[in-house]
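Progress note, project year one: complex with protoporphyrin IX containing FE.
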Amino acid sequence: MPKIFRDPSFDSTLDVLREGYPFLYNRSQRFDSDIFQIRLMGLPAICLHGAEAAELFYNPKLFIRKGAVPRRVQTTLMGVDAIQTRDNGEHRCRKEMFMALMGPASRERLMSLLAGEWQRYAHRWEQLDKVVLFREAQEILCRAACAWAEVPLAEDEVSKRARDFGDMVDGFGGVGPRHWRGKQARSRGEKWMRSIIRAIRKGKLPVREGSPAHTVAWYRDADGELLDVQMAAIELLNATRPIVAIATYITFAALALHEHPAYRQLLRNPADDYAEVFVQEVRRYFPFTPFVGAIVREDFTWHGFQFPKGTMVLLDVYGTNRDERQWPDPEVFWPERFRQWQDNPYDFIPQGGGEYLTGHRCAGEWITIEAMKQAVAFLNDGIRYDVPAQDLYYDLTRMPTLPASGFVLTNVRATGKGA
Ligand code: HEM
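Model obtained:
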């Protein structure tokens, strides 16, 4: 049996929080291995890196998710006992509900709502001395996500709700005040969504059949029952909150345009869908999800390594997207690399890998890509702006991370084009 490398640290929980994104990647490089073991929260955990290991990880016959997501992540990012923690038929049934919201007509509706918001905000920005793109993008995405989902959002609620959606995401990798802010944001968000689910079920809030709010409120789980109000609220948040999180990728896309202005011209060529490879490279190059976890379903061996039932397994998302075997010169931002990419569901996994319906791959990946392409077109052609001196450093030890300034724009002029 081959020897599994073990990290010498007695317990790596604090090291993960201290080192951040490169924690697993650093060790897979140090051990020169796609598999190694650490101790996490007092228990052994097997760590996997690279496309072949991702294919193993995304085999639902080998792993379950129940028990894999730490409570601190459930109480901030995704909600307790949500779809991310479900397995087998129960997961499949709920995933069908989410995927039913991701069809072409539904996505087109969201993009058209977003396009209107970008244009409206562009005119507002003309009156302002400076604009923090990340915060503004959060509001734009929040308005469009709520309108798309048919979740009522009063004008005076917009900034608070947008901030809360953002804090739920920001809280997952934080300790102390950041984590508490995330938890409080989630409590407020769930309370808000519970009132919406109740109003829909009582017939007090009319929503269109097929809209996300209607679909979640009337969805029947694998057991044929409506979701309880709290679970429906959590899943309605899971259909809206991550749309606001696209602000992170949009901010990184703005940074990429700023640091590599040569791509601006390539993005304008109508004969070439350059935006596609550009946003894929943004999702590969810039950090967002550090890793994902699962639990071994039954004992098995892989390449001679034993996976005992019940063991925690972590897949290195950040490092797999910069694995030199698939991504030469991974630290170079180079969109053209995606021209050769074969759409392999395991070597590029910024939003998870494998299958959508039978696995846990992100339900909102198509929306994310389309919203990013639209935002890139808007930043490239919809507005003209200056980028003043500011702190654009993003700290890899902070999860999630972002350019420190949030990407400040000044002297914004709307062109009426783009988006
Ligand atoms: C799952 C990332 C946007 C809805 C996931 C997973 C990741 C992820 C890493 C888990 C994969 C796994 O467990 O193996 C992201 C990132 C996004 C994004 C980085 C960009 C901002 C979205 C959007 C939506 C969405 C826009 C919906 C509107 C979901 C849902 C799941 C999920 C429902 C659970 C899937 C399941 O457990 O089967 N996402 N996501 N996400 N995402 Fe996203």
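Residues 83-84, 95, 98, 238-239, 242-243, 245-246, 249, 288-289, 292, 350-352, 360-364, 367-368 surround protoporphyrin IX containing FE (CB under 6 Å).
The chain has 15 helices and eleven strands.
No further modelling is planned for this target in the current period.
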